[in-house]
Each structure stands twice: as C-alpha cells, then as structure tokens.
Amino acid sequence: MVAITVLLAATAATFFLDFGSGNLGQSAPQAAFSFNYDSEGPDTLTIEHRSGDSIQAGNLYITVSGASGANGQHDLSSLSGAPSAGSEITAGSQVTFSKTSDLSDATVTLNWKSPDSGKSIQLASWEAP
Q: For the Archaeal Type IV pilin N-terminal domain, which residue ranges apply (predicted)?
C-alpha cells in the first residue's frame, strides 16, 4: 500500500510540477520504495526499491529528523547493504538504516540529487507509526 502511494505521488509530482522538462538537469527517476520498520533491539528501517527506474546509488540520500540520534543527511551508499556510489539501485535492492537507537518519532525521506544541476527531489518518505 505504501509503495503504491509513493509511486502515485512521484508520478503526480513529475507530471504536475514538470520535473521531466529539464528543471533538474537530468529527468528525475520514477521509482517506488517501501519501508520496513523493526523496533526489536536496536531500531532499524529497511528501504526497498520496489519497482521503476534504476538509480545510481551515489545520487540517493536519506534525511532523518525526529530520531533520538543520527538526525541529518546520510548518503545511501553509507547504509548497511548499500552498493557503492557508482552502482545502480534496482528493483529488489534493499538498504538498512540502523545508526540510531530510537526511530519511534522519526521521519525519514529518500531523496534523489540531480548529478547535472545539484537540485534534489523527494522520492519517498516514512513516518514512525
């Protein structure tokens, strides 16, 4: 359900905000992501690329806010299970964020940064239950 919502939001943003016309330099990728939160032991959040375009790992980062620690921006390639920055993230790829002890009040956004213009767009977000 979350993946469908994320895919619809990304598609609508691209269409209505005209991101594909060059405003970001390179066309923003169209992809759906899901989030799996595990609060057992140290909190972890697994992010999975469910479908859509392949995306270079070095162009993705997450932003964490509201957590008990590790708030701020984190390159996707620094997360557990992530490929190197030059590798592609494809459907089925998973990474795990576990750099904090409490994500129970956190918001995590997955963002893509255009390699051409340096501008960013939010691809997906997760809010703690």
A: 1-67
- Report the DSSP beta bridge partners of residue 97: 45
Q: Report the C-alpha dihedral over residues 85, 118, 32, 53, rounded to 10 degrees.
A: -70
Whole-angstrom Cα distance, residue 110 to residue 96? 12
Q: What is the pLDDT of residues 75-110, one digit of tens each?
A: 999 999 999 999 999 999 999 998 876 899 999 999
CATH architecture, domain defined by 32-127: Sandwich (2.60)
Q: How far apart are CA 124 and CA 30, in angstroms?
A: 11
The identity of residue 122, as a single letter, is Q
- Residues 6 or more apart whose CB falls under 8 angstroms from that of 74 comprise 61, 62, 63, 64, 97, 99
Please answer whether residues 94 and 47 qualify as being in contact, where contact means their C-beta atoms are separated by less than 8 angstroms. yes
Q: What single letter denotes the amino acid at residue 101?
A: S
The one-letter amino acid code at 105 reads D
pTM of the full structure:
0.77
Find, among 54, 56, 62, 91, the residue nearest to 78 by Cα. Answer: 62
Residue carrying structure tokens 């592609």 = 88
